[in-house]
């Protein structure tokens, strides 16, 4: 299975499982990639950076650290009640009981690669409470690039490709000498061939739940089709017993997004004989109080 034939679904799953880390790893630095059946690509010196190993032991799919992972964030926040309720097709989102921890009307474009962490601008301290939910509003477009070198010295670099049916993604090319940027667009949350701009709460591997709605450019109005999707609103429920607790003594809240070993992925081609594509994979958001 390649990204060319599953581009929209792969991006959707990557984005949502990545965002779900907000709900799964509050205050934790533990990677969730393995729990999402996304194994980390073999490291240099392991002796396993071969097509045979990746194909046989990782099903031709693994995650790595990108050289670029750019997205635009408009708002993030914590909630005492679930901001998205209902079932797919009739979801309702209500942020009445949410407190934004970061709000930027024009959006804040951040590149999560290039360092171990990338901290977002600090917001005001939320009211003292126990927060079992969080939300994030981001653009539906990503800019990425990366590469991977096998033990035999062959390096696969990303290059942009546009498919008339599946849109933009990253092709793996071993004839290049440097990676090239490529774009990805998330414009469909549907499965089974029909378009949908909604996904009701789903239990994620490792615990917690995630729901999502595709929105138009105002960040409020639901999208009615691929053509007017511009934002993704994700809402997350934490694991039982793992909320974010803000107390009177809490001085501040920091949000950090990480892509080390998890923000980028490579996948074998349709024939299953060689590395064929690169694409987005989960980043790991963390909330930290002090």
Mean pLDDT: 81
SS summary, helix count: 3
Structural classification: mainly beta
Query: How many individual β-strands?
Result: 21
Shape: globular
> Can you give the helix content as a percent range?
under 10%
**Computed CA radius of gyration, to the nearest angstrom:** 19 Å
Q: How do the SSEs run, as a string of H and E?
A: HHHEEEEEEEEEEEEEEEEEEEEE
Instruction: Report the major sheet.
Output: 8 strands, antiparallel
Distance between the termini: 45 Å
Oligomer, anyone? Answer: single chain
Integer tally of domains: 1
Which parts are unreliable, with pLDDT below 50 for 5 consecutive residues or more?
A: 1-11, 19-36
Query: Beta-sheet strand percentage?
Result: 35-45%
Please characterize this protein's 3D structure.
The protein has 290 residues and is mostly beta strands. Helix content is 10%, strand content 41%. The protein is built from 3 helices and 21 strands. The longest helix is centred in the first third of the chain and has 17 residues, at 3-19.
